[in-house]
Each structure stands twice: as C-alpha cells, then as structure tokens.
Amino acid sequence: MTRDEKLALMLKKDRYNAADLVTIVELLRLPGGCPWDREQTHVSLRKDLIEETYEVIEAIDNEDPVLLREELGDLLLQVVMHARIEEEAGRATFDEVAGDVCRKMIHRHPHVFGDTKAETVGEVLQNWESIKSEEKSRNTVTDKLNAIPRQLPALMRAAKVGKKAGVMDFPDADSALAKLREETREVEEALGGANGEEIFEEIGDLLFSAANLARKAGVDPEEALVRATDKFIRRFAAVEAAAEAEGSDLSALSQEKLDELWEKIKKN
Questions:
Q1: Are 81 and 25 in contact, with CB atoms under 8 Å apart?
Q2: d(CA 29, CA 260)
Q3: Model confidence pLDDT, tens digit, residues 35-67
Q4: Distance of CA 94 to the CA centre of its chain
C-alpha cells in the first residue's frame, strides 16, 4: 500500500486500533510527514517516555479512569514511536517487539502454559526470578544487583538492591534502625569536619540506610517520601496562610515565630 493510500485509509476510518496507530506513526515519520516527528530519536524521546509514565501513575493514584485511558494511549504512542525508530534502522518492528514479550510471558508462566505448579504468589515470583536469571545468565548475586537499572528513582533502586542482596540483609527492622543511627552519627562527624566529599558520602549512606529500614518495616520508601513531601507542602501552605491572616510575610518572621506557627499547624 502506498503512502497516499494509507493516508486515505486513515482519514476514512471512524474507529482505530493498535495496528492503525503503528500506521499513523509510520506516516508521521515518512518524507512529507511531520517535521517534528521525523527528527525524533530514542535519546530525544527519553524524557517524554519518563513523563508519560509518571502521568499514567498520576491517573492511577487519582483513581481517574478517563484520564488513565488517555494517558495509557500517550504511553502506547511512545512505545510505537521507539519501535518505529528501530524498524527504520532495520533492527526490529512493532510486531517483533510484541512477539518477543508474548514469548517471554509464556516462558515465564510455566504454571499457566506448562506443567509447573505454583499455587501461591510467592511461588510465582520465585519461579519468575529463577527463569529470568537463567534467561539473562545472571549467575551471581552481584549480577542481579548490577541488573537493577541505575536510572530508577534513587530510593526505589536502593530498596531493590537491599532486597536482592538478601544474604547480607538485616534480620529485622530494629537492626536496620541501629544501622541508621550509626550512619546518623557518621554524618554528624562529617559535618564537624566540614569535608564536602565526606559529607556527600555519609549522607548517601544515611539515605541508603533509611531505604533499608523502610523495606524491613514493610514500607515502600519511595511512596513514603512522596507522602511526606505532600504533607510538608500542606503544612507549609497552612503556615503561610496563618502568617498572612496575621498580616505578616513569611520572609519577615523570626525562626522562633515560624516554629511556633509550624507546631500550631502540626497539632491541628
């Protein structure tokens, strides 16, 4: 089918599917298509892919099915764009990408598509990790640690690394808390020495220990920090409103007055 025939077909339709999306992206990137779409690369689209992923998460968190449908479409568009770039380079088509993940899902679910028994979620996850390690030739714990993407949010990555390094894990949350206290003392010592590089390193150790404590306490550290940040913003807004109600500007208030307002808001 020629480019003009594909254009005509897309314009005739009133309902579209995944195959049509692949065709639309192809038309956008062909000569005579969209100048912006034609110049995109994996690297130029990297931030867009991340942004669209977080917008899907926002829709999920807000329990907004209308927005979720829209944002899933935007994320799917990113996948199709990256697949199209690969097809133009002669490396993979969208169908091949989809075919690969289909084969992967069948292979990693032998309890559904084979004779393996897995009656619990724990057994399913254990089988998944075992099969994945075999596929990727990850024979050591270090292999598995290095396979965790460095590009993940830092707290999320820290928690995953701590979990994977199970042979050296803390026995319980109390032990993780003791390590956190130890790292806090080391930060205090580093601050006393005013060595910038040492302070940087010790604060990193402190954050890593905090992630491990959260994990041992059964708390997702990434989500905990998101909620703590939201709480801070709410309280800050309340403090600012209280100051304005008294005819004051936050920047003009003393630290003592700010602390007083903060504690008042916190109690309420």
A1: yes
A2: 60
A3: 999 999 999 999 999 999 999 999 999 999 999
A4: 24
| CB-based burial label for 130 (10 Å; 0-12, 13-18, 19+) | exposed
| Span 183-229, pLDDT tens digits | 999 999 999 887 889 999 999 999 999 999 999 999 999 999 999 99
Q: Which of 264, 234, 267, 232 is nearest to 253 (CA)?
A: 264
What are the backbone angles phi and psi of residue 34, rounded to the nearest 5°?
Answer: -90, 125
Tokens for 43, please give them.
């690297």
What angle is formed at CA 230 by the lines to CA 182 and CA 209, rounded to 5 degrees? 15
Q: CA 139 to CA 202: how far, in whole Å?
A: 31
Structure tokens at 221: 């550290």
What tokens were used for 46? 């990297």
Helix axes 65-88, 18-29, angle to 10 degrees: 50
CB under 8 A, 24+ apart: contacts of 143-151: none
Largest CA distance in the chain: 74
pLDDT computed for residue 138 by the predictor = 87
